[in-house]
Amino acid sequence: MRIELERRAQPSALFAMLSPFIALGITLVAGVIMFKVMGLPPIDALYAFFIEPLIEVWSLHELAIKAAPLILIATGLAVCFRSSNWNIGAEGQFVMGAVAGSILPILFPEQTGAWVLPAMMIMGMAGGAAWGAIPAWLKNQFGANEILTSLMLVYVAQLILDWLVRGIWRDPDGYNFPESRGFSPEQILPEVLESGRAHYGAVFAIIGALVVWFMLARTMKGFEIKVIGDSPRAGQFAGFSAKRTTMFAFLIAGAFAGLAGISEVSGAIQQLRPVISPGYGFIAIIVAFLGRLNPLGIFAAGLILALSYLGSEAAQISLGISDKVGRVFQGLLLFFVLACDTLIHYRLKLVFSSNSARET
Amino acid sequence: MNIEMTEAILLTVFTAATPLLLAALGELVTERSGVLNLGVEGMMIMGAVAGFAFAQMTGNAYLGAIGGVVVGTLFSLSFAFLAITLVTNQVATGLALTILGLGVSGLWGESYIGLAGVRMETIVIPFLSEIPIIGRPLFAQDAIFYVSIALVIGISYFLFKTRAGLILRSVGDNHGSAHALGISVTKVRYLAVMFGGACSGLAGAHLSLVYTPQWVENMTAGRGWIALALVVFASWRPMRVIAGAYLFGAVGIAQLHIQALGYDIPSQLLSSLPYIATIVVLVIISRNRRLTLINTPASLGKGFVPDR
């Protein structure tokens, strides 16, 4: 028995909508099997994973805190992926955004004017965009593969952060811990509601997703990105520059990741540490694909992946399940999303004898 | 610098380079068949944890290495099913393989953290190992090192001197024509991906059995990605992979030796050298676009659906 593909005359609109849900369903089934294998009660485990974090107000705030960076980064990545620019270095752009945005609070803690927070956010976006511009420039100028350069820059960014917080940015009153000084209250991104910790990063995520949705769906720039991504040659004939699009996409993705970085540091962590991200930049890749590279879909997908972070913490506390399980879920989900996307363009046929294909 | 120190440095360079060499060789064969598998890092980390696990269970490092190869191969099959059978986007699927590999290995290896591993013994080849300077680094090594050298020669011969190698390259250069000639593109590509998985698995096992015989989460530390860059650097030729791998092995080792010399250089700067070197090398190689275009397998990264 083998599987054969038959191209659909038109992409199936039904499966374009259904495939993320099918993928989620398969991931849950895989989760049940995984928990069975690990000798855990699957229903209790899944409950702890996916329901428990949703029933209390404080944990909904945590969900927003985790979802905001994922949505912001993934929205920027959608612009890259749609134009066939494989930026997988968002984690590095996130870190460099956090570093650039932290220049003010760490070097000038006495600056507490109303301009400080906006300036920090803009510097964060600039830092992320600058870091994103490097692979774009190397691709445009030398044809260097952006997948590899953007990823290598993640390691470099993490080492720069490590060097800063262990060296010149270490808190002088911090008992030699590798941490920067805590940010002044005026330099901390405020909470949105009184009921919990969720900060303005969540608002940025909503605005960012809406802006990019509008750009992609309603503007010439969005059309250009899509054409360049689908067919660079057609784009050329239309007078679109692939190089300009590459730079644009990386700048947007870098700025969004940078904004996510400084929001996380200023809103949630409130100081710099050697590690400031639980892999948001990589998990955002899953968010982007689960959201079908559409900012509105990404919004929903970001909440789901944020739930996988919270779920693994909750399940560890209530059932003693390893927090690594969340990572496996995240990986499986991307796998199944990609597999289900095949259904949009192809019909699957099971062929039971190897000769039947030749006769048709 | 005296002879003993040179020998010691060369030995560490070759040891550090072996996983890079193995993973890059496997990926080279995969890419020659037209499939871009970005999941090297994930297959490597699976090989590392499996190698450690099987060596723990059996107390035998060789069985550990075989475990690494088997798990690397099986893991690559999941990529093959998606990328070849379901013609998914190869870049995204490779990323998924890496993310999944890092997750599964973290879960699998959780109970191994802090355990002393089984170290693979060195095999000293009499007489040859007594040659000054290059004797010990080349002929007093572990079995995986010897396998890696044999693979370089074997793959070179296979790709350019055998009919099967020609078939593999034809599938990578023009899958439509290969299909028209009656070659099963799917079968060739499955085998090439599995070979890549086996090599990456062995490369990972080398890390957890030879280089640092223990299990540390994310212990591959980007080596899989560097291996991918090495394939580009080598312009898809096995003999050039060896040069690139040893160059990068040297860069990776240089940081330890520079630190030992006591210069006041931030350790983070030294740690970032392999990654910066990768970018520099990619830029230098890619500048010559004609050379890159001539050597790149023409169907690289493109899915194939036979039209019947």
Describe the secondary-structure layout.
The complex is a heterodimer of chains A (360) and B (308).
Chain A: E1 2-7, H1 13-37, H2 42-50, H3 57-82, H4 90-101, H5 103-107, H6 116-142, H7 146-166, H8 201-218, H9 220-230, H10 232-237, H11 242-269, H12 280-290, H13 295-319, H14 324-345, E2 346-351, H15 356-359
Antiparallel strand pairs in A: 1-2
Helix pairs in contact in A: 1-2, 1-14, 2-13, 3-8, 3-11, 3-12, 3-13, 4-6, 4-7, 4-11, 4-12, 6-7, 6-11, 8-9, 8-11, 8-13, 12-13, 12-14, 13-14
Chain B: H1 3-32, H2 40-58, H3 61-85, H4 90-108, E1 122-124, H5 135-139, E2 140-142, H6 143-161, H7 163-173, H8 175-180, H9 185-211, H10 223-233, H11 238-261, H12 267-271, H13 273-287, H14 289-295
Antiparallel strand pairs in B: 1-2
Can you give a write-up of this model?
The complex is a heterodimer of chains A (360) and B (308). With 360 residues, chain A is mainly alpha-helical. Chain A has a domain at 63-293. Chain A is 69% helix and 3% strand. In chain A, helix 4 packs across helix 12 (280-290). The longest helix of chain A has 28 residues, at 242-269. The model of chain A is unreliable at 356-360 (pLDDT under 50). By secondary structure, chain B is mainly alpha-helical. Chain B has a single domain (3-295), classed as ABC transporter involved in vitamin B12 uptake, BtuC (Orthogonal Bundle), CATH 1.10.3470. Chain B has 14 helices and two strands, in the order ααααβαβααααααααα. Chain B has helices at 3-32, 40-58, 61-85, 90-108, 135-139, 143-161, 163-173, 175-180, 185-211, 223-233, 238-261, 267-271, 273-287, 289-295, and strands at residues 122-124, 140-142. Chain B has a two-stranded antiparallel ribbon with strand order 1-2. The radius of gyration of chain B is 19 Å and the shape is globular. The mean pLDDT of chain B is 91. Chains A and B meet through strand 1, helix 7, helix 12 and helix 14 of A and helix 3, helix 4, helix 10, helix 12 and helix 13 of B.
